[in-house]
Recover the amino acids of this structure.
């Protein structure tokens, strides 16, 4: 009897130790403090998509998690395509593939997408996602997550005099405050319905303006390119209320026109 | 480096002053005594005593006592005080070393008069109105030479001294600082005091003034509060007045009681006015007002050495129309309180130490809800309710000392201002969002200054004076969005909360030329610390030039170097008296608005400006009843950097009066005149030229019984339409105004 008790104890100890070494707490899926866009499951693998806020037109920071039966996969390769299906055709939008490493803040795979139009009668958005392991030797699965995109008026698509199509996105300040705010905008060129490369050498001349007060503000800093089609500057809002961000763009000495974002805070 | 030199100089000066008594005072025969009010039997403090032609002088302490060196066998002692008839009496050698009681006759019939003094002299005109408690304060101040008033409405004018105003003029209540709450200047200090609150209005012109100097280059206006009187028993008054030009009704009542150790006075004033009628029967729509004022003062004197005085003014205004500005005052509340302790005869040579602890709080609401905002040019199609509040607290301590012919004053002044103001912009179109900004984002100033003055009366008729002051100020801004705003406006500025030093040094010399003439000069050099509006005011609309002003935390001090020559003739009670001053004021690092873009200006130190001018008053008493006089003043200002005249400089102006005073019927006629002003700042303001004008006034006062006074007067008899050059947006002056009043004493 003593031998049985000893045997059982050793067995459970070994089993417990083994189980701990295979699935620890870090491998379990946690619920992040983010807005959940949706998920799909294929052959036991699940992809969950998250965003910092409900998706809207313009720039959206996205996050992904991949797990198999509740156990997170490490370093999966995730391929993302935001796709708008309209009557008779579909198109993508500017986006960035998810990182191969988890981000420090949410411990998820981070990506971004710029939705160029809202969901509605014109069409609907979905995130097309494909996942495989690091060396294509193991799993591979695909699926879509349908999302509703609200209109934020933070993105402009326009055609230049040279018949080129561009996507201008106002990213920051996301929550404007009185005083000096970081300004971040992005410019992408639409080469095809699926291809939106960043514009790397545009020049911006912008002015914040209050139409109802008929004045602007001083000490603004024009955005300059910081990489991958993103431009950073500073904007000064000297009071709350209705403002316009008046942005004039030149590219290789071509005037791409003045574009106005309206905001109210 | 300059600041360092200035501080070192001031400290050296103070050390010198502190040591003067040790090596200067000598054992001489002395003449000592006590000055007593002949009516109330109260001691008279603050009277100036000196020997004619010898110069030795002193000031009576709070017990009316004095002690004066007497080096001659025989001399004429002159005792002067603005509230009493000047006394001249022969003193002989054998009368020294003995305490003498000297009675002084109050200069006025009653004891409730408001005394307005500028420099050496009491305002001579409208003496018959000095006891009218229902008369607006600014009317009592109206004809002081060198003092002008900025008019924004039919209410609360802002004093301008020698062409300077706002932060360049100290406007105080009983030595207490007070900070208006309206960022658009609609509530100057005069908005919160009534004549009933005051015993006197003391005006000094220029920064070098005895007993204590001020770094405010324009000068000082001090509204000295009325005090209850010990041993007076029960007394009271009631007064009612009417001004036809605005259908203004005024009522005032006071009740007081004085015992041997304590006295109290409680009073109230209410006035209510409709639209002002300018000359030629032109109505200024929306210029009415209503306000009430409560004043109480408590005096406690536990023994002969100590005295406590507690004062409170509560002023509550309803709607006050400012038809020439963008908005009207909707409501304004002020609470002003001070506790003063006087320590008499603190030592043999220190006559008194007066310490005043005070606090006041002002709240001001204004809006344009009663206006048609769709038709105006500035910020059309939106309402702009604004709120402002300030809290000012401080402590002052003034030490008076003398020995023989040496007079010394020291003053410690520490004060703080906390201010907040904001505005909303509510578009008429509901599709446009409301806007909001903070004009003063929880800003504060903490200042401390130490100063002193010394006067020496020489044996050959010279009065030599020196004074100095050192001031330090720190600034803070605390409201989050205001900090963000200023960070945005001044991205290269590391310190939004600068610490600043200022100073003032002054020298004066007066010579008693003869019994009738006294001449002298004053020179001074000082640096004024920028005020909280100049540092942190944001988006402040200035109707004078139509620009919105931004404060500037990086402002440097403003330097003022002044010189003045003056000549005095006679005194308040001589047949012929008068004074004239010629002065020049050079200002460096002159703080003014510099256009930055569009409709915006920023306060900056903008080079140099120079102001120069003169004041002249001459009065002649034909006989004990009849008296006449004339006055004139002129200011010329030029801003070198802008290369044009300084804005809002008063034109050549003056007055001429003739009055008859008697116990039964008093009469006065007055001619007020101003020349046209064509020297205007065309480039940097919206200032326009104004024409000259001449106005004729008559007043009469009848006293059928010693407790009843009836008054009737007509101002601007010819009903001339005129605009004072300092009125904002050409606010016209009052047309013909028939004013009547009755005052009862019991």
């Amino acid at each position: 009897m003593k031998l049985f008790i000893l045997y059982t104890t050793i067995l459970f100890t070994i089993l417990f130790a083994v189980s701990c070494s295979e699935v620890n707490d870090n491998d379990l899926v946690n619920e992040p403090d983010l807005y959940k866009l949706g998920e799909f499951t294929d052959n036991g693998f699940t992809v969950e998509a998250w965003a910092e806020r409900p998706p809207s037109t313009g720039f959206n920071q996205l996050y992904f998690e991949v797990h198999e039966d509740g156990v997170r996969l490490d370093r999966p390769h995730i391929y993302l395509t935001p796709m708008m299906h309209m009557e008779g055709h579909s198109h993508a939008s500017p986006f960035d593939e998810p990182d191969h490493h988890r981000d420090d803040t949410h411990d998820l795979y981070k990506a971004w997408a710029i939705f160029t139009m809202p969901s509605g009668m014109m069409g609907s958005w979905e995130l097309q996602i494909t996942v495989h392991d690091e060396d294509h030797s193991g799993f591979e699965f695909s699926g879509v997550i349908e999302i509703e995109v609200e209109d934020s008026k933070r993105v402009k698509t326009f055609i230049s005099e040279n018949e080129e199509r561009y996507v201008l996105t106002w990213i920051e300040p996301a929550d404007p405050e009185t005083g000096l705010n970081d300004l971040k905008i992005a410019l992408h060129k639409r080469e095809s319905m699926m291809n939106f490369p960043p514009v790397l050498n545009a020049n911006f001349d912008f002015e914040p303006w209050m139409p109802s007060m008929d004045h602007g503000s001083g000490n603004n800093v024009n955005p300059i390119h910081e990489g991958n089609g993103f431009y950073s500057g500073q904007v000064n809002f000297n009071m709350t209320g209705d403002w316009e961000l008046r942005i004039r763009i030149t590219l290789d000495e071509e005037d791409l026109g003045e574009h106005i974002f309206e905001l109210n805070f | 480096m300059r600041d360092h030199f200035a501080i070192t100089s001031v400290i050296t000066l103070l050390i010198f002053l502190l040591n003067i008594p040790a090596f200067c005072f000598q054992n001489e025969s002395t003449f000592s005594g006590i000055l007593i009010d002949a009516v109330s039997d109260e001691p008279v403090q603050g009277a100036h005593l000196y020997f004619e032609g010898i110069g030795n002088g002193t000031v009576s302490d709070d017990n009316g006592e004095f002690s004066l060196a007497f080096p001659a066998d025989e001399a004429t002692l002159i005792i002067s005080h603005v509230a009493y008839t000047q006394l001249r009496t022969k003193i002989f050698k054998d009368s020294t070393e003995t305490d003498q009681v000297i009675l002084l006759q109050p200069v006025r019939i009653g004891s409730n008069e408001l005394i307005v003094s500028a420099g050496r002299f009491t305002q001579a005109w409208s003496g018959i109105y000095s006891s009218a408690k229902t008369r607006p304060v600014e009317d009592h101040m109206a004809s002081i030479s060198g003092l002008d008033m900025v008019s924004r409405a039919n209410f609360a004018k802002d004093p301008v001294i020698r062409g300077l105003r706002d932060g360049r003029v100290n406007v105080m209540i009983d030595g207490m600082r007070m900070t208006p709450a309206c960022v658009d200047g609609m509530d100057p200090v005069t908005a919160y005091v009534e004549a009933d609150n005051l015993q006197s209005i003391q005006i000094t012109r220029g920064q070098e003034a005895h007993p204590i100097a001020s770094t405010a280059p324009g000068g000082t206006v001090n509204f000295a509060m009325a005090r209850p009187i010990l041993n007076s028993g029960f007394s009271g008054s009631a007064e009612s007045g009417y001004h036809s030009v605005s259908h203004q009704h005024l009522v005032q009542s006071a009740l007081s009681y004085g015992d041997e150790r304590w006295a109290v006075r409680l009073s109230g004033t209410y006035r209510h006015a409709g639209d002002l009628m300018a000359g030629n029967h032109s109505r200024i729509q929306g210029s009415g007002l209503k306000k009430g004022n409560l004043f109480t003062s408590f005096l406690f004197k536990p023994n002969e050495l100590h005295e406590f005085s507690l004062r409170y003014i509560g002023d509550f205004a309803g709607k006050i129309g400012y038809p020439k500005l963008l908005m009207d005052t909707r409501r304004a509340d002020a609470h002003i309180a001070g506790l003063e302790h006087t320590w008499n005869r603190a030592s043999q040579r220190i006559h008194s130490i007066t310490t005043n602890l005070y606090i006041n709080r002002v709240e001001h609401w204004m809006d344009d809800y009663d206006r048609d905002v769709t038709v105006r040019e500035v910020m059309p199609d939106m309402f702009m309710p604004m709120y402002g509040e300030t809290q000012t607290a401080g402590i002052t301590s003034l030490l008076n000392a003398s020995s023989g012919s040496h007079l010394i004053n020291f003053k410690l002044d520490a004060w703080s201002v906390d201010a907040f103001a904001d505005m909303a912009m509510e578009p008429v179109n509901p599709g446009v969002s409301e806007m909001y900004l903070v004009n003063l984002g929880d800003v504060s100033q903490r200042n401390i200054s130490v100063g002193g003055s010394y006067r020496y009366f020489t044996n050959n008729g010279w009065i030599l004076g020196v004074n100095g002051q050192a001031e330090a100020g720190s600034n803070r801004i605390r409201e989050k969005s205001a900090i963000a705003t200023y960070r945005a406006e001044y991205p290269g500025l590391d310190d939004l909360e600068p610490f600043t030093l200022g100073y003032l040094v002054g020298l004066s010399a007066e010579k008693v030329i003869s019994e009738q003439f006294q001449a002298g000069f004053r020179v001074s050099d000082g640096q004024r610390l920028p005020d909280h509006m100049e540092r942190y005011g944001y988006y402040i609309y200035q109707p004078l030039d139509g620009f919105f002003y931004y404060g500037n935390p990086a402002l440097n001090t403003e330097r003022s170097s002044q010189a003045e020559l003056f000549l005095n003739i006679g005194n308040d009670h001589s047949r012929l008296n008068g004074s004239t001053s010629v002065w020049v004021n050079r200002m460096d690092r002159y703080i003014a608005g510099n256009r930055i873009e569009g409709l915006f200006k920023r306060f900056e130190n903008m080079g140099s400006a120079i102001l120069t001018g003169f004041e002249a008053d001459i009065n002649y008493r034909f006989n004990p009843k009849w008296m006449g006089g004339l006055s004139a003043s002129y200011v010329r200002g030029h801003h070198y950097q802008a290369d044009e005249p300084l804005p809002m400089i008063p034109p050549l102006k003056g007055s001429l009066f003739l009055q008859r005073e008697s116990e039964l019927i008093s009469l006065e006629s007055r001619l007020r005149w101003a020349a046209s002003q064509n020297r205007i700042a065309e480039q940097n303001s919206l200032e326009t030229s104004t024409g000259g004008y001449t106005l004729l006034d008559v007043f009469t006062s009848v006293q059928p019984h010693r407790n009843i006074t009836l008054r009737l007067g007509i101002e601007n008899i010819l009903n001339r339409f005129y605009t004072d050059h300092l009125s904002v947006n050409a606010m016209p002056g009052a047309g013909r105004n028939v004013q009547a009043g009755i005052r009862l004493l019991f």
